[in-house]
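Batch manifest line 429
LIGAND: flavin mononucleotide
JOB: complex structure
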Amino acid sequence: MTCSNGTRTEIETAVSRRKFLEFLAASPVVAPGVAGALASLATLGAGEALAQSYDVLRAAPSNVGPVITDPAQALNVFEFEPAAKQALPPAHYGYLATGVDGDETLKANRDGFEKYKIQVRRLVDARKIDTSVKIFGETWASPIALAPVSSQGAFHPEAEAAVARAAKVRGHQMILSTVGSTAIEEVIKERGAPVWYMLYPTDDWMVTEALVRRAEKAGAPAIVLTVDRQGGRNTETLFRERRLDTRTCTDCHTPGFKNEVSRKPMFDGIDVDKVTNLYGTGMTWDYVKRLRGIVKGKLVLKGIVTGEDAKIALTHGVDGIIVSNHGGRAEESLQSTIEALPAVVAAVNGKIPVLVDSGFRRGTDVLKALALGATAVCIGRPYCWGLAAFGQPGVEAVLNIMQREFVTIMRQVGAVKISDIDQRAVLHV
Ligand SMILES: Cc1cc2nc3c(=O)[nH]c(=O)nc-3n(C[C@H](O)[C@H](O)[C@H](O)COP(=O)(O)O)c2cc1C
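JOB STATUS: finished
ARTIFACT:
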């Protein structure tokens, strides 16, 4: 049985931990303050990680129900999902949660992490941790970036603008989707720095070219071509949730493909009359070559999951790869991306950066990917849960928790900087 964010066990664990906190808060036999202090962990900065357990004992009590009502109550990123579900209409939650077919690949993405154990090291002075990485000449404060997620207006009225502000505050890079609810110019303004732009090819080259030009003019240093949506998909969880939604879709969605596309701000001023398909079902490596010819900055392919395709990408002048199965929303392959990663890393052999996404929820997941050779990781649903439930503060809290967990496990493997993390830190089982 699967859940949108991974295994049911993980959700159940989050909820039972929450119930345990409630119990603690109400219990006369537990020292006052413990439950509230546990909840306040979410607000700790990375630099305070060493003091965590003492702070738990010191902080004031608070009542926390089964679903968090404030981002500061969250102990981990999973706890944002029930809050998002509560905040969203069923169809919108279904859109965010869904995988494809039986959601087995969605689940596989989480299960994949269990096949790698972490090898810790002792007696390394790890008081000062530097999580910065350099990608395409730019220094990122954290190797955790925000994956492109479409239509964020369905999750919160401030949509990508709120996400961009959170990314700015917490120091993370983000990738804007072609079908986002916010234009790239506004997103860059809110983030205060350029963002990467994710391109759906469309089946009209003029439109594609216009999108690339606009993104580059706005300052996007990298164009990310998503190549995993050509086959169509069966999003059963979405369809199931849709049945529970009593609202009329046409109140917000204008029927017809062209209206769906043209209402997205990135298409403003572009003639989409000839577009019948966003995903370029006829796209081949020739298309990548053609795109390479017009992209002035970096060209990244998102959705590569085999060493074979990674090698072909290299011969087409691609500057970077994102190993991704679209968060289990593209095809039901049952292949987790963490397990697909090593083959891609081997094929690329250090020539270009390899990023990875799909199922990343814990700092330990990030460490495993970096140990297997990834340059950085992206997260999708977790920041959208934060956005849906609490707007910008929710996104900030999600990023804070993942970064804090990542710093904690870096210390335990004796890595004080990203380049200290290598394959010795993981064991495949
Ligand atoms: C609601 C939703 C919309 C998405 N839209 C896009 C998109 O427009 N373009 C794209 O390349 N990937 C899209 N993705 C996939 C993400 O970029 C990313 O690959 C995935 O969410 C990572 O998995 P995770 O959600 O388990 O972290 C979307 C994912 C979700 C959940």
